[in-house]
Write a structure and sequence with these properties.
Helix content is 63%, strand content 6%. It has 174 residues and is mainly alpha-helical. Strand 3 and strand 4 form a beta hairpin. Helix 1 runs antiparallel to helix 2, helix 1 runs antiparallel to helix 4 and helix 2 runs parallel beside helix 4.
Length: 174
């Protein structure tokens, strides 16, 4: 769960910071983290695979045609490269790379079972589950109403473990 919070903290800090440099500093630190995790080659390929097309596209759109452009850096005849659009494009690219890189590192370094277990533990401690206790939907089932939520022939589990509509409970059989 800490990694998920870190993703949002890093990404939102790159987004909120007024300049574009913080996003690239965070991405550089993500490269260091990837090297420590032994994923530098795969991480580099992933980041540059996204960086090049996104950078070219946003520099073309924002740098050349942004309505914010006042200061002209280069004149190409058909369009002018503006400083304000270029800085904005760099900020967007840095923020996107921060989110993409941190999500990639989290997904490749986290065992899915542990993430699900942490999520289940967190959900069990939620006020909704505390309020329901172990009762869950047993009161509904006691009245003879058996309406599990189904999606594509599968029973969708309840948010609170042991709430009565879990696929593993005795009350529901297919």
């Amino acid at each position: 769960m800490v990694k998920i919070y870190a993703i949002f903290c890093l990404g939102l800090s790159a987004l909120i910071y007024p300049g574009f440099i913080l996003g690239y500093i965070i991405v550089a630190l993500l490269f260091v983290a990837a090297a420590v995790a032994g994923l530098l080659k795969k991480f580099s390929k992933f980041i540059f695979m996204f960086f090049v097309p996104i950078f070219v596209m946003l520099m073309f759109i924002q740098g050349l045609y942004s309505p914010k452009n006042v200061t002209v850096l280069a004149d190409f005849g058909f369009a002018q490269l503006g400083l304000e659009g270029t800085v904005y494009a760099l900020k967007i690219v840095g923020t996107l790379l921060t989110f993409l890189g941190s999500f990639y590192l989290m997904s490749t370094t986290t065992y899915t079972g542990k993430l699900v277990a942490a999520q289940d533990e967190r959900d069990t401690g939620s006020p909704e589950c505390q309020e329901r206790g172990d009762q869950g939907n047993h009161d509904v089932q006691a009245e003879g109403i058996h309406t599990p939520i189904r999606s594509g022939g599968h029973v969708l589990p309840d948010r609170c473990p042991g709430a009565g509509d879990d696929a593993g409970d005795q009350g529901i059989r297919d």
